[in-house]
Amino acid sequence: MKSRNSIALRATLVAGCALAPLAAHAQDATRIDPIDVESEQASAQIANTPITGIRVDRKILDRKQATTSDTGAILSSLPGVSAATGGGFSSMPSVRGLSEQRLTVLVDGFAIDAACPNDMNPPLSYTDPQSIASIAVLTGVAPVSSGGDYIGGVIAVESTPPQFASSGETLITGNASAYYRSNGDGFGGAVKLTVAGSNLSATYTGSYSQSDQYDGGGDDGMVRSTEYAKTDHALALAWQHATGLLQVKGGIQYAPYEGFPNQYMDMVDNKSWFLNASYKGYYDWGDIDLKAAYRDTDHEMNFLEDKLPGSMPMNTEVHSFDASAKVTIPASPHDTVRLGAEYHHQWLDDYWPPVAGNLMMGPNTFVNVNGATRDRIAGYGEWERHWSDRLSSIVGVRFDSVTMDTGDVQPYGTGMMQMADVQAAAAFNAADRHRSDGNWSGSALLVYDLSRDAALELGYAHKVRSPNIYERYSWGRGSMASRMIGWYGDGNGYVGNLDLKPERADTFSVALALGGEAQGWNLRIAPYYTRVDDYIDAVPTGVAFTDMMGQPSGFVQLQFANQDAEFYGVDLSGAVQIAKGSGNDGTQLTASLSWIEANNLSDGGAVYRQMPLDVKAGVAHRSGALELSADVEWVAEKGRVDATRGEPVTDAYALANIGVAYTLSGVRVSFDVTNLFDKGYALPLGGMSLGDYKATGVLQTVPGRGRSFNVGLSTKF
Amino acid sequence: MAFADTRTGWSLPGLAAAIAVHGALLVAAVTAFAVAGQGERHHRSREVVAIFEAAERPVPPPPPPEGRKAGRVVPPVRPVPRSSDAQPPVVVSDLSPGRAASTPLPLLPAAPAARAIQPEAPHSAPPPPPQPVTAKADPLAAYAAQLRAAIMRWKPRGLRKEGEVTVAFTLTPTGQLNATRLAQSSGDVQLDRMALRMVRQAAPFAAPPKDADSLDFTIAVRFH
């Protein structure tokens, strides 16, 4: 580990530090008054969209990690963010009504490709709330340098930045945590250990989580197909030298099972490993940020216990390679220019092995996607200007070239019952499947500090996303084949569409922040409007599915199609410090409200899966080692539903949670009760409870989790 | 809820590491300074240094003793409320924008600059030098204030990191940058390089006063 360079560097550092005062004194250096570089002002933070950007830090995660293993669900506590139910650790966040690949989701700065026709392993499923250092969510207009090929918000999950020891020492630090949740008998733990010198640092993080099926509130009983288990392990190395920081990280995740209450399938095995490297160099002319990453995912679906009997293996393999370069040049004291280039490669294979003895699922392998590739090359330029100490702007443009192609496909067989798929495969194989899109995007942001108590953020963006592999290349038209496609949890079947065009979104976002820490209160008001042309929604193919008895099941077959849609709403949030003690002591009241309405302008209906009015209020008190908290959430009836998908109406409900934590000798012990009154309710974004449906024949929406007593332990060393 | 954190968004572990590292460095530097300074603290440079220190604080606060235990990371303790009403950097930068670095500035009184660091007293590493009172119209002091204003124009924005870096640099008689080096690292390469970059980008400076007996300077940049 101790390269010659590192020793030389260490020596230089030690010498530099120790001798500096001596040298300064001996040479009669004139000491100039220190300069303070503050980052607090909104206009200084423009690149982080200071008003519509929200940061979930370690303190908040400490409070939440004992109550859920689902990072997406944690984000749903933020104004403007909701979570669509997936598996126990795979909720898909929705930011201002846009979800899935419409968002940029980064883990340690890297995107993670979808690797499942049901999107069971979205990027956040590879994170564990216990191991995350912070999550930044940009709900408004994000600068083009934050990514491309998306039209909504940005979610960036970050691990702890590398830590280094003071010169000559060895730093050993870390933390450990564990939890137990009564509802579902969930338990897990995580550990992080850093060993570092002054310029080399190694950090191991590992976590384990598992849970049985949870019980719904009230009389809802057990919610089938909600069990899960997973473990994540990663090793990060960092080398800090005179002009930069090199980081290399590798890791593996293994999830042996994860039930999906609103899908026909469950995840029965998911293995994913990755290796990434980044270099950040800081030179006199500017900064350079180089990144490269490789990820390999093997994903398997079949039935877990609640969906038995039966078997239907479905396998997906994905290889992704990602490389990017970004240069940041301070062109003048007021101007910064960013230039960047990105390359992203995704290879996806999706095949369903035959089931012995089954007439429908055999005798051949069903080739759902045959070695599809999706390559994206992008370039962008961005100009950040600080017009004064109070006014800043960022404008940028980028171009993304997306090229996709895929190989020939085949159905299970050529029997009479497989005719729909036989014909569909023949048509698909005869078609030209190469697609390329040239997507121009642009964004403009303005942040103005009106006064010490008020700041304004204005944003406009035009962003474009090309269809994903399943939207373009799913081809099966048989009942079963099409019902295996889709990440909507609605029980309907989906057919891809080779003719899909990229979606183009224009977003206007305004945000006003009032008050601040010094004033003891703050209020944020953030209205927005997004119009999406060629929004990828779905239209009926005319096929309605029947159940085993030949009766209509209520589910239909849909095909992806470009439509137009609009999203508008307002996010309000505020906090009042009602008592302030020394240090962190005090009592704070918080409240937030999210309201959104989304219209499909092509069919005049509502857009699927939109959160109804959601109001939250909480009080948190801290006094020395003692922390107390109580939260209530009220969600209105979801009456605006998508008729195309047969989306169910869900009732209004209110939930209450309480928590207490005490830190003793460095060990934080927490006790929380979630859904205190054991309220039975339907998850507004839960979709249909297909696990329950298969077992009982009764179709209902997925019930929310009932009361749970949660105990958490955590310590830092 | 994240309301209170949205505009600041500090990464606690990063903060803790930075504070611990630079705290330890500060202690080391102060110790070294105190020991080394015993013999020669009344040397030539007393008038110059005194200008900034005279109004600043009569007694040096002792460096915080914690944060040294085998280089361990300690929880971030904010010694100074960040919401302090005096916004010193703004005051000074109001004077500087728009002026070309090479344009000699009117003599800035040393007082505002000195006042600026008052609330942060526990932060400063060096112990106070002797305090002669005859510092008022020293041209080198005025020049130093001018350098400070020029360097401050290049402060980076939106970093959201905490740490302190001291840069030492030497000028030529025409105000060109002769040499720069890191006198005290923050432990974070990004902050170190940003501080060095500020000085290098601000150069060339206005020509120093002719009678200046030293063209060596040090400046601390404190990232909050």
Automatic annotation (TrEMBL), chain A:
Residues 224-676 form the TonB-dependent receptor-like beta-barrel domain. GO terms for biological process: siderophore transmembrane transport. It is a multi-pass membrane protein. Residues 1-26 form the signal peptide. Residues 55-154 form the TonB-dependent receptor plug domain. It is found in: Cell outer membrane. This is TonB-dependent receptor. It comes from Tsuneonella suprasediminis.
